[in-house]
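Both lines are given unchanged directly below:

***
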Amino acid sequence: MLRYDMGEGELRNWVIGEDSFNVRYLAKYEAIMSLGNGYMGVRACTEESYPQETRNCFVAGTFNRSGVSEVTELPNIADVTELGIWLDGEGFHLEKGNIEEYP
């Protein structure tokens, strides 16, 4: 579940975080926790991949369209955030096993 009250002191009501993992909310959390600096932006997805996720990394000022009648869109660039984690030959996945502590 998303929480908006995780900051303390001066950061009170300025820190957003998750207190549990639910694959149902991946798209919402990816959009809310995206990160950008005005030039490059990364959609905030988990390190391990899930079928429901949308991985994106964009560079401002670049556009993509295949025909003059199409709306221009920011093209995706290479995703450098995905990480494959393997334990005893099995891929790590937050939906498998027991989560003892999150985050």
Summary: The longest helix spans residues 26-32. Helices lie at 26-32.
